[in-house]
């Protein structure tokens, strides 16, 4: 089983079968995509989002995040914020919804983080982080 790094506890959201399947496919695709340079993953996600014009609601986004994280629990390697956020975006795309994939950083001490947003609001993140992240990339 994988180790989650700096992620909030799993949600109590009860996933449907199609969400679990989409989460598994989304997480597997995310792991494969992240073997490429990150710029390729960003381009691919951007192109896929163009074909999925309907944005996810907060409930649909929460389901995509929960499905990606549920699949990540069975992954024997590293499943941190980058893998889980990309899995949530790909899961939402498989469910014909789109999410924003965000990558940011903060200083003192330096830390990087990736997350998803729906309607400009983070999904599945702690309500009030101790220090906000500076958004570096949004797809």
In short:
The chain is α+β, with helices and mostly antiparallel strands.
Number of domains: 1
Order of helices and strands: HHHHEEEE
Q: How many beta-strand segments?
A: 4
Decide which structural class fits the backbone: alpha+beta
Q: In this structure, how is the largest beta sheet organized? A: 4 strands, antiparallel
Give the key terms:
139 residues, alpha+beta, four-stranded antiparallel β-sheet, 4 helices, 4 strands, 17% strand, McjB-like, McjB_C, transmembrane, Branched-subunit amino acid ABC-type transport system permease component
Would you mind describing this structure in some detail?
The structure is a single chain. This protein has helices spanning 17-33, 38-50, 58-72, 81-94, and strands at residues 100-106, 111-118, 121-123, 134-138. It is α+β, with helices and mostly antiparallel strands and 139 residues long. The chain has one domain (17-138). The protein has a four-stranded antiparallel β-sheet. Strand 1 and strand 2 (111-118) form a beta hairpin. Helix 1 (17-33) packs across helix 3 and helix 1 (17-33) crosses helix 4. The relative contact order is 0.22. It comes from Spinactinospora alkalitolerans.
């Amino acid at each position: 089983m994988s180790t989650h790094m700096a992620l909030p506890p799993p949600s109590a959201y009860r996933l449907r079968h199609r969400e679990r399947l989409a989460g598994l496919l989304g997480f597997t695709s995310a792991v494969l995509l992240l073997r490429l340079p990150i710029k390729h993953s960003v381009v691919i996600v951007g192109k896929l989002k163009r074909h999925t014009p309907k944005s996810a609601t907060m409930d649909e986004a929460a389901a995509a995040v929960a499905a990606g994280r549920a699949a990540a629990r069975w992954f024997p390697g590293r499943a941190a914020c980058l893998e889980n956020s990309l899995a949530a975006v790909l899961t939402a795309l498989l469910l014909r919804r789109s999410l924003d994939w965000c990558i940011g950083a903060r200083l003192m001490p330096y830390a990087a983080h990736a997350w998803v947003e729906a309607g400009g609001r983070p999904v599945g993140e702690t309500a009030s982080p101790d220090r906000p992240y500076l958004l570096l990339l949004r797809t």
